[in-house]
Amino acid sequence: MTTPAVETVERRLAWRGDNLVAYNSRAPEILLEGPSGTGKTVTILHKLHDLACDHPGFRGLIVRKVAVTLGSTALATLEQQVFAEWDNSARKSVLDGVHYYGGSTREAEAYVYDNGSRIAIGGMDQASKVLGSFYDVIFFNQGEESTIEDLETLKTRLRNG
């Protein structure tokens, strides 16, 4: 019996400056600021994805002030630039073992990994969905939209402080 060939995708990423510092940081809070197009969002999304791949059972959250704004911004970047091969018709990443879950009345939308990791998606306008769980890492995309109260509320959802 022959073993089917396995396709390997190698991604070479070169983080520079503050993006490199943020990607490698273990600090409890990270703030990246700067002009658009400098890789801030891509860096943090890669960090979340790599944590989800490397740590089975990892729970992450991508959040914005208004949930609907995620689809054409951070989530488009995640699917197009972070996941190796994203099939929009099947809503899954072919090579990374990631599947999209559309959510329910009790649970937020999420990207679910074959290893049991999840990256939930939500907005502070629908806080009951994202606040009903605990997370290892929370990424507030476009943090300038947030309030201190939003950030303090989200910090209560971190399961490791």
Question: What does this entry look like structurally?
Answer:
- This protein is of the alpha/beta class and 161 residues long.
- It has five helices and seven strands.
- The protein has a seven-stranded mixed sheet with strand order 2-3-4-5-6-1-7, with helices on both faces.
Give the percentage of residues in beta strands: 15-25%
Shape: globular
Structural class: alpha/beta
Q: Count of DSSP helices? A: 5
Major β-sheet annotation: 7 strands, mixed
Helix content: 25-40%
Key phrases:
161 residues; globular; alpha/beta; 7-stranded mixed β-sheet; single chain
Short description:
The protein is α/β, with parallel strands linked by helices and about 160 residues long.
How are the SSEs ordered, and which strands pair?
Elements: H1 17-24, H2 40-54, E1 59-64, H3 74-82, E2 86-87, E3 92-93, E4 98-101, E5 109-113, E6 118-123, H4 127-130, E7 137-140, H5 148-155
Helix pairs in contact: 1-2, 2-3
